[in-house]
Design a protein that fits this description.
This protein is of the alpha/beta class. Among the domains are: 171 residues, 3-Layer(aba) Sandwich (Rossmann fold), CATH 3.40.50; 68 residues, no CATH class. The chain has 14 helices and 17 strands. The strands form 4 sheets. It has a 6-stranded mixed beta sheet. A hairpin with a 6-residue loop joins β15 and β16. It is globular. The structure holds iron/sulfur cluster (2 copies). One iron/sulfur cluster binds next to α11, α13 and α14. The site of one iron/sulfur cluster has 15 residues, from α10 and α11.
């Protein structure tokens, strides 16, 4: 039995149907669409214009503020246009369109800098390299990684926590990454620990991935960084185990304060497995973030796969590659079924935060609508944040900001446990998410 301390949560069917599928490299697409907004923070500004020739890995967009991450060309080719294009957040975002040419150099292969050499480098320079590589949290949060690696002096950090829980049903990209690249991940952890100046790291993995646990335990015996310990912790399978707050509570028994509280308030930096790998590649190979692993899965896909995909590739191309049933598809979700975002078309790009593409069939999708709350209390029982989701959803439905805030609008982690168990099929998490977006938009307008 693994470790778990948090109360609430659920155990939905795992449906990890791609767990046994090795990561395949998706072919370089004929065209990529790279939105200027792929991180939390202000959008980037383009550094190129229509007609420019670009090399793979070239920086093509840059943010103005510190909380931003540049965008790099994921292919070599010609910039055809910079125009609004549909973004996974559901609206049009200015995007750089690159038409691929036949020259696609692989300059990052076989050129790794030895780990010990990197571990002797200045930490600020390494952090700048992470920033320059455009790395963000690849678990879906897309917070710029270099910011997390630079905690304020008043908030000293003593622990690095690696999130390998992958508690969302269906998704297996992190699982495969841990099985196929354990040594690179352990190198990445050593580099992150060096930058943060800490000596203790943990990797939390749910116990339904025993092969990944074994691979990382084996790799963690070969640490080169002096004084660092890396502990691989087996976790009980419980959604949302991979939420930062719950992971910290489970492994370290520390409580992150309510918003705006952050993990660094309790001395912790949390990084996702995919992010660690991206940091390893950036520092040891000099490779910016131009691709990521994506799980393409669900009953509406005949050949589900884990794919290494160039950013900006159209989701429709991945679905065709995996032989999807476009006629029978009921819903396309980017991410997992619990926290992912439903899309009305596959004509949109894979971005830094795209961990999966899930296709549900029509039979799996609830089209009956929702009913009034029957006050059964099931949502309260499962809420891992101890909120009253039914009351919160009613306030959210009526647009009552102040009252919703009193009932934990900002505390909600949008995990979806409440919606999952609701017998009235109330879209509680969607209502809360919508109210939060409206609030953010109102704040932005002033
Ligand atoms: S109210 Fe928020 S935190 Fe609580 S179960 Fe629902 S989505 Fe999760
Ligand atoms: S689970 Fe649904 S029906 Fe039951 S109390 Fe919560 S919102 Fe109401």
């Amino acid at each position: 039995m693994g470790t778990t301390y948090f109360i609430g949560g659920i155990h939905p069917p795992e449906n990890k149907i791609t767990a046994g599928c090795p990561i395949e490299t998706f072919p370089v697409p004929a065209k990529v669409l790279l939105p200027l907004s792929q991180h939390i923070g202000a959008p980037c500004e383009a550094l190129v214009k229509a007609g420019d020739m670009v090399e793979v890995g070239q920086k093509i967009a840059q943010g103005r503020g510190y909380v931003s991450a540049p965008v790099h060309a994921s292919v070599s080719g010609q910039v055809k246009s910079i125009e609004p294009y549909l973004h996974p957040i559901g609206r049009q975002v200015s995007s750089i369109v690159i038409e691929t040419d036949t020259n696609q150099p692989q300059e990052w292969a076989n050129s790794a800098i030895p780990l010990l050499k990197l571990l002797s480098k200045d930490t600020a320079a390494l952090r700048d390299q992470v920033q320059d590589a455009g790395i963000v949290g690849l678990g879906g949060a897309t917070f710029p990684t270099h910011v997390k690696l630079n905690p304020p002096v008043a908030k000293p950090v003593d622990t690095l926590l690696i999130n390998g829980a992958e508690c969302e049903p269906y998704l297996t990209a992190d699982h495969r990454m841990m099985m196929e690249h354990p040594q690179e991940l352990v190198s990445g952890i050593q580099l992150l620990a060096h930058i943060l100046g800490i000596s203790q790291a943990y990797i939390g993995i749910e116990e339904n991935k025993p092969d990944a646990i074994a691979a990382l335990r084996e790799a963690a015996t070969k640490i080169e960084a002096k004084g660092l310990t890396i502990n691989v912790v087996k976790l009980r399978v419980r959604y949302p185990q991979g939420s930062e707050k719950h992971l910290i509570q489970t492994i370290l028994d520390r409580q992150v304060p309510p918003p705006p509280g952050l993990p660094m308030d309790v001395g912790v930096v949390v990084q996702n497995v995919g992010t660690v790998y991206a940091v390893y590649e950036a520092l040891s190979l000099g490779k910016p973030l131009i691709e990521r692993t994506v799980t393409v899965t669900g009953s509406g896909v005949r050949q589900p796969k884990n794919l290494k995909v160039r950013l900006g590739t159209q989701v429709s191309e991945l679905l065709d590659f995996c032989d999807w049933d476009s006629e029978g598809a009921g819903k396309i979700i980017l991410g997992g079924p619990m926290m992912g975002m439903a899309q009305y078309t596959p004509q949109l790009p894979v971005i830094k935060g795209t961990s999966g593409v899930l296709v549900q069939t029509r039979a799996e999708v609830n089209t009956a609508g929702y009913r009034d709350c029957v006050r059964c209390g099931k949502c309260v029982e499962v809420c891992p944040m101890f909120l009253m989701p039914q009351t919160l959803s009613i306030y959210a439905e009526r647009g009552m900001f102040k009252e919703a805030e009193e009932y934990g609008l900002t505390d909600c982690i949008l995990c979806g446990c409440c919606s999952y168990v609701c017998p009235a099929k109330r879209p509680i998490v969607q209502m809360v998410g919508l109210l939060r977006s409206l609030k953010a938009a109102a704040k932005a307008k002033g």
